[in-house]
Design brief:
The longest helix is centred in the N-terminal third of the chain and has 22 residues, at 76-97. The protein is mainly α and 287 residues long. Helix 2 (45-64) packs across helix 9 (215-233) and helix 7 (168-184) packs parallel to helix 9 (215-233). The chain starts with a helix and ends with a helix. The protein has 13 helices and two strands. A hairpin with a 5-residue loop joins strand 1 and strand 2 (39-41). The protein has helices spanning 2-20, 45-64, 76-97, 103-112, 118-135, 142-162, 168-184, 188-208, 215-233, 236-252, 258-264, 266-273, 279-286; strands spanning 31-33, 39-41. Strands 1-2 form a two-stranded antiparallel ribbon.
Length: 287
């Protein structure tokens, strides 16, 4: 029940922030062109981060009045909040200040030329955030700390790599969350992350209808938080397997287009296009 309530509260919090921050949807500083060449705002993940903050503030306040868990009883909640703000900040910097350099090789090439790109800053900062998160659950060996931090960082980066079409990052996050939710159950971690998934679903219509782009701000958060839950809830063996898969996917993305792969596989293509606005729908909405 607590997890379901978390989904609902996260969904409603995002819809409230979208309504209250409607003017942000027309902020020129956030305007970018999407894959169709349409101009819309990026960094829509800001709404998700603010929703997570509102939910956690509400939980803490209610808990202080004996309505729910008392503040401090769920150690996963501060970690979720830190991850949301940390990964969200790095993603926002890349969304707003990002250069044309793309891919890991592009960022390394720029660094060799004496330029620190926002993408490289995001990779370095993401690794630092991941190390802090991986160390938080308690004492671990140095090898385990690095492995778990790499898992979180790779998950965050994969979220960015998947955010190449309307709603894709949201859908991938929800699909990946299903087995994670089964493992986490109704425990502290499951309850802590539930509002994030509810918020992601709440943002999905805006992304699918091309009224905004989730951006690295949101994709970074979704990927990083799912990685965090895996580190907190899964066994060592499972984490090792997932880490290998994440590393391989990140490496493959340097040479292979996920969009092309998705278009060639009918079930993936159907899911990817589910709910997405057609060109005719968008023309009608613009008129």
């Amino acid at each position: 029940m607590g997890v379901v309530l978390g989904w609902v509260v996260g969904f409603l919090a995002v819809r409230f922030v979208l309504l209250a921050g409607h003017d942000m949807l027309h902020a020129p500083v956030l305007e970018r062109q999407n894959y169709r060449g349409r101009t819309l705002i990026t960094a829509g993940g800001l709404f998700l981060v603010m929703a997570i903050l509102i939910v956690e503030a509400g939980r803490s306040t209610l808990g202080a009045f004996n309505l729910g868990d008392a503040p401090g009883l769920n150690p996963a909640r501060p970690l979720v909040l830190f991850a949301a703000f940390g990964f969200g900040l790095l993603g926002f910097m890349d969304d707003v200040l990002g250069s044309e350099d793309r891919g890991f090789r592009g960022h390394v090439r720029a660094l060799s030329q004496g330029r620190l790109t926002t993408g490289m800053l995001k990779l370095i900062g993401g690794a630092a955030i991941a190390l802090v998160l991986a160390a938080a659950p308690g004492f671990v060996t140095g090898q385990r700390l690095v492995s778990d931090a790499l898992l979180i960082a790779m998950a965050a980066n994969l979220g960015n790599l998947l955010d190449r079409a309307p709603g894709r990052a949201h859908k991938c996050a929800v699909v990946a969350y299903i087995p994670i939710a089964i493992v986490a159950g109704t425990g502290a971690v499951g309850i802590a992350v539930a509002p994030v998934i509810g918020g992601a679903v709440g943002l999905m219509p805006e992304d699918l209808r091309e009224r905004m782009m989730l951006g690295d701000t949101g994709a970074n958060v979704l990927g990083g938080l799912l990685g965090l839950v895996i580190v907190l809830e899964c066994s060592r063996t499972a984490r090792n397997v997932i880490l290998v898969v994440l590393v391989l996917l990140n490496l493959v993305a340097e040479r292979v287009s996920f969009s092309q792969v998705i278009d060639r596989v009918p079930p993936l293509r159907w899911l990817d296009r589910l709910g997405r606005a057609s060109s005719e729908d968008l023309r009608s909405a613009d008129e």
